[in-house]
Structure formats: C-alpha cells, structure tokens
Amino acid sequence: MRTLLMMLAAVMALCNGLANTAGAQELISPDMPIEETYRQGIGTPVGKVVRALGQVVVIHRGEAVGCRAKEGLDLYEADTVVCLEESQAVLEMADGSRLSLAAATRLKLTRSVFSAREKDRSAFFHQIIGKTRFVITKMADFKRSEVRVMTPTAIVGVRGSDFVIMATEAATRVTTLDDTLLEVFNKLLPEQPPVMLAAFQQSLVEGAAPPSPPLDITPEQAAEIVRDVPADPQNLAPEKEAAPAAAGATEPAAATLETTAAGASLTGTPAATTACPPMRVEDAALVPPETPDREIPPAPETPYVERLDTLQREEITRIQETQDNSLKNLQEENLAVQQMPDFPKPPR
Fold first, then answer.
1. Model confidence, pTM
2. Beta strands 195-197 and 162-167, pairing class
3. How far is the C-alpha of 111 from the C-alpha of 149, rounded, in Å?
C-alpha cells in the first residue's frame, strides 16, 4: 500500500510539473507568426482536427509559421500540433485512431502510413512534452501494423491500445487503460528487454534507468487520469462563449498570440475604450496664425534600399535557422527509429 501511494504521488507531481516544464522548454517560439488562414501541407493528409478548444497551433514540416487549428482541417505527415495553456485538441488519424492532447502539449506526427487495400499501417509519433491519450485502432488482420511513440526518455511499442503518456524532459509516465498491451523501453537502453504493460498499469521511465516494473491501478484512478484527455471530442471542456456585444459597440482588435516562460496568453485591445482626459495648453505655447513656417530639420539620410536589404537579410537568416533546426530534428528522429527494436514483439 505504501508503494502504491508513493507511485500515485509521483504521478501527481509529474502532472503538476508539466506546465512549468513546458514553459521552460517553450511550447512554441515567442516570435513565430500565427496565421488565422490555414494553409495546405505537403503530400496527402494523414488525419484531421476533430476538435480544438483554446489556442491550438499546427506547424507544417519545415515552416517558420504556425496556423490556428480549427475543426475539420487536414493534418499532414511531419506536422507538429501544439496545445498551449488552457487548450485541448482531439485528432483523428486516417486509420481511425484518435489522439487527445491536453494543455501544454507538443506532439509531432513524424510518420504515418496507412493502406486498407495493402493491409499496411505504420505510424511514429514524437511527443516532445505534455500529456496525450492514444486510442489506437486494432488492425489484427493487417500484414504490418506497427505504432511507436517516442518521448524525451522513452519509446513505447503499441499494439491496438488505449493509453496515456505524460512526458517532461526528464521523465515519462505511461498509463494503460482497458484491453491494452504495450512495450516500454528507455530510449537510452534500446537493447534492454522491455517492460510489458497490460490493462490498467503504469510504468515510469527516467534517466538512464530501465522502466519501472508495472504498477497496477484501479479503473477509478485511470478515469481520473483521462479526465482532461477524453477520446470523445464532445467530452472536452466546453469552450467559453463571449458575451454578446451591446448595440453600437465596436469589435475588439484582433488578438495576438504570445508565449512567455509563464505560458501562453492572448493579448489584444479590449472592445471597451476609456475616454482620454481633456488636455490643457498654456497660452504662451500657442503659435499665432501669422507666424511664418518654421524650418523642419531634414530626415536622416538612411537609404530605403539599404533598410530593405537589411530586413531581407534578417528574414533569410531566420528562415535558414528554422530549416537547419528542422533538419537536425529529422536526423535525430531517423536515428532513433533505426535504433529502435522491431515492434510488435510476441508477449513474454
């Protein structure tokens, strides 16, 4: 009993630490532009956004611009989905699997192949940080059906399963739900035998240690864990509706997305404005109408072309840095895939 209480306390500590860790790691670059108009990604869609509440952003492969996620929009291979603070999202993949993202979560759809005709399914997700529920459709009659999830510390080999991953830079907590079988590895120890998780069990992966032995949990404890990551999009927390504007009121200015170490927030000019106080000017400061025009000092000689070239160079440098970072991340993910053991393995 004491061990069970200690493990549950560790789960709560991990959950409470997600927001702070996300802020330190930056869910999204503070200077990344966020567009309201959704742009099509590269290739064939591999899924779609079923529900998005709050500030949910989709970043296509290699792009330095994010798009505001909305219900029904397509998702593409190598897309990154970011749920900022007080936000939630449910994604549906082409094979019918659903991914439910909690607040302060960043998930990349690194690879997704599905062909019902060829009976082939292969998917690789990279959960950088946060909390995600994976409801993976079972494909028992498929020639190949492999799904893998990688976090900063763990690799999870998936059969048709329903499970939750909570990840920070330092630790990963894997929780299985009903009718589930998983293989859990430490990413630093891919040659070590995996820990097998059956229904309603947990394992913790941190540092260079093997995954902890399975810990049994009750269905009631599991229900509490999935409370903020429901598989059914209709069970997400209802979106806050704005109060109707009064007659004659002006629309508020468009809000802008800002992310700081404390999290993400919407800022913008409020709809209601405050009247300016009257301004007084002393008589001595007034200029009589008959006063001749005063000479205006010339503007500093900064050629327009030179300023334009400077702005273009800065933009090119920013795009190049983004592409370099994307290439580095892709190389690291490909290396991780090559080092991963084959999935799925027969149960031990």
1. 0.66
2. unpaired
3. 10
Q: Which amino acid is at 295?
A: E
Q: Residue 24: enclosing H or E segment and its boundaries?
A: helix 2-25
Q: Which residue has the tokens 């000019």?
A: 269
Q: 147 and 123 in contact (C-beta within 8 Å)?
A: yes
Cα separation, 70 vs 65, in Å, equals 16
Q: Are 18 and 131 in contact (CB under 8 A)?
A: yes
Q: Which residue has the tokens 């990349």?
A: 108
Give pLDDT tens digits for 189-247. Answer: 988 999 999 999 999 999 999 999 999 999 999 999 999 999 998 888 654 433 333 34
Query: Mind listing the domains of the chain with CATH numbers?
Result: 2-237+334-339 (2.60.120.1440)
Look-up of token digits 């998005």: 52
Measured CA angle at 161 (ends 158, 167), to 5 deg:
65
Rounded distance between C-alpha atoms, residue 173 and residue 165, angstroms:
6
